[in-house]
Amino acid sequence: MADDTFEGARLDFRATMSYSDYLDLDRVLGAQHPRSPDPNEMLFIVQHQTSELWMKLALHELAGARAAIAADELPPAFKMLARVSRVLEQLVHAWSVLATMTPSEYSAIRPYLGASSGFQSWQYRMIEFMLGNKNPVMVQAHAHRPDLHDKVLAALHEPSLYDEAIALLARRGFDIAASHLARDPSQPREPHASVEAAWQAVYQAPRDHWELYELAEDLIDLEDAFRQWRFRHVTTVERVIGFKRGTGGTAGVSYLRRMLDVVLFPELWTVRTGL
Q1: What's the pLDDT score for residue 24?
Q2: Angle value at C-alpha 115, between 109 and 117, nearest 5 degrees
Q3: In whole numbers, what is the pLDDT of the chain averaged over residues?
Q4: Distance CA 265, CA 227 (A)
Q5: What's the predicted TM-score (pTM) here?
Q6: DSSP code of residue 246
Q7: Between vectors from CA 41 to CA 39 and to CA 45, what angle results, nearest 5°?
Q8: DSSP per residue over 132-183, as a string?
Q9: Rounded to a whole number, what is the distance in angstroms from the first to the last CA of the chain?
């Protein structure tokens, strides 16, 4: 009779849950369906699928951090924001793997991609909305999927992570303009002098506002990591396709370079000049 253990590890899983069962690996590992005959398409698919999984975790943690900030429970928010920054590091490194694809290799699979593009990633759009880069037009890309459209639209209308941080400043006694607190969260947020003044007070007396000081630095870490992700993206795209238009219709590299100029938490950056 065969031994059902090895070095103390269980080997018979006919009556219990295995590692593969828990992770639903049959579906995860069966979700790669190359459309071209070129073997390099597997890299392209896996890189984007794993990035979407990391984005799923980032959204989960960002939602938790936003809720914690809204509830004045900052220590849990610090933990979650730090985790998101580490997730973004993984997303940065993922571009290094895709960068091993040469222009010739990509050209062999590009005709099979149709109009599909990372520009259409609903999770990426929700991350941008969560971080405050609101653009109502972007919701239209998901109209063909009412379930996803509703998710993205809800994210557009929810307060961003930074909106909640600013509301927290007001609750902690800082004089944030009432008109700014009452703004429509679905619209792009313009920098405001009252917000910068509040952060300046925090940075000038960190011991008196330690939690807010730590929150500010966690937000800076987060945007720093997000900028690196964007930069690695545009560099990889230029390396692989040059200045061709994107499969989704955007201008490709020139569009991505414009996105590098988007600042998510502007007052946290401008305040540094006056300190």
Answers
A1: 97
A2: 80
A3: 93
A4: 12
A5: 0.93
A6: P
A7: 140
A8: T---GGGGGGGTT-HHHHHHHHHHHHSPPHHHHHHHHHHHTT----HHHHTS
A9: 75
Which tens digits make up the pLDDT trace of 33-90?
A: 999 999 999 999 999 999 999 999 999 999 999 999 999 999 999 999 999 999 999 9
Q: What are phi and psi of 102, to 5 degrees?
A: -85, 165
pLDDT tens digit sequence for 231-274: 998 998 889 878 776 777 676 787 788 878 899 999 999 999 99
What are the DSSP calls for 174-240, one per residue? ----HHHHTS-TTSPPPP-HHHHHHHHHHHHSGGGGHHHHHHHHHHHHHHHHHHHHHHHHHHHHHHH
- The tokens for 7 are 């070095």
Q: And the tokens for 259?
A: 């996105």
Q: Which two tokens stand for residue 2?
A: 């065969």
**For residue 192, is it left (φ>0), alpha (ψ between -120 and 50) or beta?**
beta
Q: Tokens at residue 48, please? A: 């984007």
CB 219 within 8 A of CB 268: yes
